[in-house]
Amino acid sequence: MKFRERTGIDLPGESSPQWPASREYWDKRWGPRGWTEAVILNLSIGQGENDQTVTSMARFYSALATGGMAVRPEIVKGRVEREQIFQLTPEQMLGLRNAMAGVVSATGTAGSAAIRGVVLAGKTGTAQMPPPLTDHAWFVGFAPAEDPKILVSVLLVNRQHGYNAARAASKTIEHYLRQAVAPIVDIEGNR
């Protein structure tokens, strides 16, 4: 999966994410020798000239949740389409999931979004805007971390910090998980 490709979601007019793909991009943007490899390193942590969509992040995180298999996002449930986009060892996947669970732990950047009794794994982010505009809050996460059932990607415009988006995502995830395990009861209380 490339971060500059559309996800193929079943909606018309999907926007393309932007991801600088070559030295030619940087030479055109900053002039030859007007940039360093540090700008590419900056991209590796999600910073810099990177403009992703909510669905492109959801697709990438679906691969983080499933051992490298990205799922095409969909609105209308159809045939699930998966694509292997990376391969990590089981140890690497466990380390990555543990790190993402740490984000939503008491000491993480999204500790206030923790769900009691559920290990939520995710990543906060802040889309920085030029002054006087206000930054946007990002969060993408899945739960339960050890056996994912749901993934939520949130971008809150002008909400500044990723923990704001994490709180919205965790409420959605918690509601889904509680509904999924709640017994079905009719109006007379019969199961």
What does this protein structure show overall?
The protein is an alpha+beta fold. The protein has a domain at 89-183: Beta-Lactamase, CATH 3.30.450.330. The protein is 32% helix and 15% strand. It contains five helices and five strands; from the N terminus they run H-H-H-E-E-H-E-E-E-H. It has helices at residues 23-30, 38-44, 54-65, 90-103, 162-181; strands spanning 69-71, 82-84, 121-127, 136-143, 150-156. The strands form two sheets. A three-stranded antiparallel sheet has the order 3-4-5, with helices on both faces. A two-stranded antiparallel ribbon has the order 1-2. The longest helix has 20 residues, at 162-181. The N and C termini lie far apart (45 Å).
Briefly characterize the structure.
With 191 residues, the chain is an alpha+beta fold.
What would the average pLDDT be, to the nearest integer? 85
Count of separate DSSP helical elements: 5
Query: Helix-strand pattern, N to C?
Result: HHHEEHEEEH
The 3D shape can be described as globular
Please bin the fraction of helical residues: 25-40%
CATH class of the domain at 89-183: Alpha Beta
Described by strand count, sense and barrel closure, the largest sheet is:
3 strands, antiparallel
In total, how many beta strands? 5
- Rg over alpha carbons: 19 Å
Strand arrangement within the widest β-sheet reads 3-4-5
Could you list some keywords that capture this structure?
Beta-Lactamase; 5 helices; 5 strands; alpha+beta; 191 residues
